[in-house]
Write a structure and sequence with these properties.
Blueprint: H1 6-41, H2 53-68, H3 72-93, H4 99-104, H5 107-129, H6 132-145, H7 151-163, H8 169-175
Helix pairs in contact: 1-2, 1-3, 1-5, 1-6, 2-6, 2-7, 3-5, 3-6
């Protein structure tokens, strides 16, 4: 087995950590927006005050999902999957990030760290080939940008929402592919 310099392994672990955090952020932001829509759809009718409470959160979440675009759900799912896949190897590779820790752990932990670094290399290569970091970053920006909706947009969306409040927003959005459908 070819050994890589410790500095390279430390940079690799740091890079994998940054990728995992970006993947988790995009997945969490998307899941929060979808959860707000689903929470509102459980009500018989939505509150009449679009600027306060649940109605405001619903309008904001719908705007966020609209601004992020239809591909946001797929990117968020890829982010959650990658964050989950990186978690175990990152934990096991932790000793490889520093000389002191590599010297302090036993041979079994060093072996696991070396195997984990190999797995991280593979996951990072896959992420690089698919431009995942850039896609996660752009989708996160799109999801955050939607949170800054101006009041006039919220009022217009709220008025539209009150018109369609008799239907189930989550079911309608799922039918159009904006959010995943519930089982």
């Amino acid at each position: 087995m070819r050994r890589h310099p410790l500095g390279v392994q430390a940079r690799l672990v740091r890079r994998a950590t940054e990728l995992s955090e970006a993947a988790g952020r995009v997945a969490d932001a998307y899941e929060r927006a979808v959860a707000a829509v689903r929470d509102a759809s459980r009500l018989e009718t939505l509150p009449q005050e679009a600027g306060l409470g649940l109605g405001w959160r619903l309008v904001t979440s719908l705007w966020i999902l609209r601004e992020a675009g239809p591909e946001a759900g797929g990117i968020a799912a890829a982010g959650r999957d990658l964050a989950d896949r990186l978690h175990g190897p990152l934990q096991a590779a932790a000793p490889a990030a520093g000389l002191r820790t590599m010297l302090q752990v036993g041979p079994a932990a060093r072996s696991r760290a070396t195997e984990a670094v190999t797995e991280l290399r593979s996951l990072l290569a896959h992420a690089d080939e698919n431009n995942l970091l850039e896609r996660f970053t752009q989708t996160s920006v799109d999801l955050l940008r939607g949170q800054d909706i101006p009041d006039f947009v919220a009022l217009a969306a709220g008025a539209d929402l009150l018109i369609v409040s008799e239907c189930r927003p989550a079911e309608t959005l799922a039918a159009h592919g904006v959010i995943p459908s519930t089982p």
